[in-house]
Amino acid sequence: MSDTLLKVSGLKTYFFTASGVSKAVDGVSFELKRGEVMGIVGESGSGKSVTSNSIIRLLPPQTGRIVDGEITFEGRDILAMSHKQLLEFRGKEIATIFQDPMTSLDPVFKIGKQMVEMICAHQDVSKKEAWDMAVHALARVGIPEPEKRMEAYPYELSGGMCQRVIIAMAVCCKPKFIIADEPTTALDVTVQAQVLDLLKDLQKDMDTSILLITHNLGVVWEMCDKVMVMYAGNTVESADTKELYSNPLHPYTWGLLDSIPRLSDHAKEDLRTIPGTPPDLRLTGKCCNFYNRCPYMTKQCCESVPPLVEVEPGHFVACHRQNGVERLVRGEVTHDAE
């Protein structure tokens, strides 16, 4: 059996609207091995969530469409699956933890009813067995008095507790792959740490692969084996986590890392930011999407799209000035770029 669990090749997901075609994901490729944790980082609108939703084919039917590429899970073509096959695939083999726990649960049904219904949909068990499995799952994720919580409505629980319920539902069927789409965004920092520790423990216990989508680079360092940086629908850098943090190469990655607040003994300093705004996704694909915000920009950046090049073993970068031959020095702004 191959060690590769998920393979995405040349994925292009576009949104067709009255104002034009928005290239939300425009040629993304990556692989995820069994038991591996991969992080996808980038600003809002970079294509992180659309990439994950494309994997489970959860796109708006009126506007969203996968126009090109391949997505295989254990060698099976996800894009060729029927609606019935998708229903069995989602939840049983692949589970998703969405970023807002308060809207991921139906407010008019009790926690127990929702969990039992989900378990019975994917496993051949009785309602009594499903109830016991749900109680065990709630206890496993650290929810006190799980039997009592089964009788509660979502609005009776805190945000952190609801997120634990979502995680419990995700692991009930022992999926091989979990998509965690910004699972700590709506939570305070203390609960964030608890949720991340919980995900790490479950990943180790079940040997489950995780695709973690986040804005928080600190979370990536703590959780992920490798990381992919996205910008305007494209991969701009991809490497092992330690390699990317110790030797980042793309100017956008430098900007993200420089934006992390740091504790120091120096006088108060302004928080460093990346100037400008992301491009209109209806107009991308003709040049480097980051050129108008990049202090290292040259004429070539405005004229052609930089290919994703392996500049070091396992370290890929999409930058005209980081092509393996030419090497850009961080902080060294050339005359052309000024």
Task: Give a quick set of tags describing it.
globular, 338 residues, alpha/beta, eight-stranded mixed beta sheet, 11 helices, 12 strands
Short description:
With 338 residues, the protein is α/β, with parallel strands linked by helices. Helix content is 31%, strand content 24%.
The helical percent reads: 25-40%
Order of helix and strand elements from N to C terminus: EEEHEEHEHHHHHEHEHEEHHEE
Tertiary shape? globular
What is the number of helical segments per DSSP (H or I, 4+ residues)?
11
Give the strand order, joined by hyphens, for the main sheet.
Answer: 6-7-8-3-9-10-12-11
The main pleated sheet reads as: 8 strands, mixed
How far apart the termini lie comes to: 53 Å
Please identify the structural class as seen in this structure. Answer: alpha/beta
Question: Using only CA atoms, what is the Rg?
Answer: 21 Å
Commentary on this structure:
- It is a single chain.
- Helix content is 31%, strand content 24%.
- It has 338 residues and is an alpha/beta fold.
- A hairpin with a 2-residue loop joins strand 4 and strand 5.
- Helix 7 (159-171) packs parallel to helix 8 (189-206).
Note the topology.
Elements (H helix, E strand, L loop, with lengths): L3 E14 L2 E14 L3 E5 L6 H8 L8 E10 L2 E2 L5 H10 L1 E4 L3 H4 L6 H12 L4 H14 L5 H5 L8 H13 L5 E5 L7 H18 L2 E6 L2 H7 L2 E6 L2 E7 H6 L4 H8 L50 E4 L2 E3 L21
Parallel strand pairs: 3-8, 3-9, 6-7, 7-8
Antiparallel strand pairs: 1-2, 1-4, 4-5, 9-10, 10-12, 11-12
Helix pairs in contact: 4-5, 5-7, 7-8
Family: Belongs to the ABC transporter superfamily.
Membrane topology: Peripheral membrane protein
Protein name: ABC transporter ATP-binding protein
